[in-house]
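Technical appendix A lists one of the benchmark inputs used to test multi-chain prediction within the project. The record comprises two sequence entries:
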Amino acid sequence: MTWLETDLQLAIDWFPYLMAGVGMTLLLSTGSLLIGVFVGGLGATLKIRGSVATQLLMQLYTTIVRSVPQLIIIYYFYFGLNAGLRSVPQLPGLPSPLELPVILVAFLSLGFIAGALAVELFRTAYAAVPQSEVLAGKAYGMPPFMLFRRVLFPHIARYSLPGLGNVWLHTLKDATLISVMGVTELMRSTTVAAESTGEPFLFYLLCSLLYLIITIASGGLFAHLERRYTV
Amino acid sequence: MTYLEIIIEVARGIPVSFGVAIGGITIGCVLAFPLVLARLSKSAISRFVAWAFLEVIRSIPMIAMLFMLYYGLSQFAAVRSSIFWPILREPLWCAIIALSLKACAYTSEIYRIGIISVPEGEILAARSFGFAGYRFYRSIIVPYAARIVLPALSNEFVILVKASSLASLITLMDITGLAAGIATETFRPLPALTVAAFYYLAFNSLMVAAIQYFERRIAI
């Protein structure tokens, strides 16, 4: 057998395992994006409407995530979250010692990072909402929630869609760092395959190729969404 | 370990971390020039090749690139016996190469936006005055483009400094690597990680401030 045939055979053998990794990566990224959108919405509201203290807190949050490496933030969550929980005095009646499952820590850390990007995104999208429409809504006597749902939300969603595509791509790539927690996403499954077969180059190449495909596919998806939702 | 000991211990990674970051960014910024010229050239083939290169580099995660360079290439006997082996066997150089690839892809896009933002009239006027080649770029394009490019570059550089922390995953003892080591050894992760976070925060803030200083210098 030539090396090409051997490599092809190896790639085919390990393909289901790598695809499971792709599934985990997509699950991690999607879940974290949702957490990020939630945190971002909350953070942007606090930054726009909140008191000076909450505005400062949000400023601190976005500054830290912007200038501290994602890997360190992920280590913080991975090493720190459970260490922090262990130091909480044991309450009677609670299951002891409280330990968060690793996958939850993964979602939280990626969501924390995506959230900081989303805060800035939603804040700028909010600033782009035409004030005349907000005034018109108020003049019709819309209660705050209805004003948000009918006037603000459609505008903010539309303005932030391209930026959300960016956040998604960032989250997708940050998900590779979750491999340090031992969660078997695409990066981790590639490493396992590379180490078991002794063919690291082939598998890291495959992993890059899979990432390329995911990136191109999500680019297409977001382009479609933008076309669909722009007026 | 006391805080002071951690601060001193993690500081040993500063030259490594910022060496990788500054080296990668500098090489990337230089390589971005030929790339952006190819991207804006008249030939459709060189435009396509440059575009494809950019898309591929941008969509590959940094870790995959690092692992491919450091662990992947060493499996080939041809690479191990080549003249590049003394470079490719060092995690430091692998990190610098991976970071420069990322940097040149991102930076060339920023250059491109800077260049296409130069008003058409300026270019025509310069051409009719006989500006061409190096002088054309030096006196007409760069002064215009720099004002657009610098703010975007400072954002990009921060992202690249952050990305340099991934070098710790190919056994390089940079700030992140040392901090993670202390975190696992002492079972007290927060002090070491906080110290590391502060070093990155300080370096990034200084870098952004320096670029903002240049922005003010060249502002009209």
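The CA atoms of residues 25 and 185 of chain A lie 5 Å apart. The interface with chain B takes residues 63-64, 66-72, 75-76, 79-80, 83-84, 173, 176-177, 179-180, 187, 190-191, 194, 198-202, 204-205, 207-208, 211-212, 215-216 of chain A (CB under 8 Å). Comparable benchmark entries are summarised in Table A2.
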